[in-house]
Amino acid sequence: MNDKKEVVNRLPASRPLLLFNHNAKAGGSSILNLLREFKSCEIKVKRNDGPIEDDLLLKKYNNLLLQKLQKSDTNSSVIDSQDCFVHIKENKGSTFDDRYAGFIIGSIREPCSHFLSWWSWKSDGGSGLYPSRKSPNITKFLGKDAPYYNSTRDIQRFRKWIKQPGIRGQVEYHFRHNYGAPPVGADCLVIVEDFSNSLLHCLQMYEQQGGFVNWDSPLVAGLVHNKEEEEKSAHRRKVEEKQERNGTDD
Prior knowledge:
Residues 226-250 are annotated as: Disordered. This protein has eight helices and five strands, in the order H-E-H-E-H-E-E-H-H-H-E-H-H. By secondary structure, the chain is α/β, with parallel strands linked by helices. The protein folds into three domains: 3-110 and 171-214, Rossmann fold (3-Layer(aba) Sandwich); 112-170, no CATH class; 218-250. The chain has a five-stranded parallel β-sheet with strand order 2-3-1-4-5, sandwiched between helices. Strand 2 (41-45), helix 3 and strand 3 (84-88) form a beta-alpha-beta unit. Helix 7 crosses helix 8 (218-249).
């Protein structure tokens, strides 16, 4: 029997509550902007790292949702889990058990691009990455030439920064910490290098198993438009290639 399929079959058939597990510097801000556009409330969760029983986990999220609804100016009888999403804060992680509470979207980024984004962020004074005793003087390798940090000197600094003992393996560590290994803590991953298509796919998956997506909201509609334009472009290329082949044969 397929173990992965068996595990997924243990989940409820419909999970209308949407959860977003925020993987730092992997497209999270753009995903949040889109979700906030069609979800009326956001529940920010800073969960503990320890194991939580299924019923306690569900109770935790349901209580948070209830508290949010009680504080809302909108009639609570109208708002339900379809209107809200849970934002699992950066580096707090999610497990398979969290998926009983709702449908979880995460994100992933090509490692070199991820490291560069992190380095630029920290060069701007941002947080992220765990401090390490292995590299106490690591800040001297951050960028100095704002705002792009692409000078010859900064390129050399980045190359030295990424080789530091406290940095190597951090992207993998954060991914494992966020979603597990294998990544059973997410139902769908948005791929930064294919952002529009992969986010659209995740939203379609979420809707297919009982979630609500407002396809008329501008950012969501933009994803659909991008996909349609991409398919039209691919079709035109096929037609042109076929015409070229036919012309050659003649």
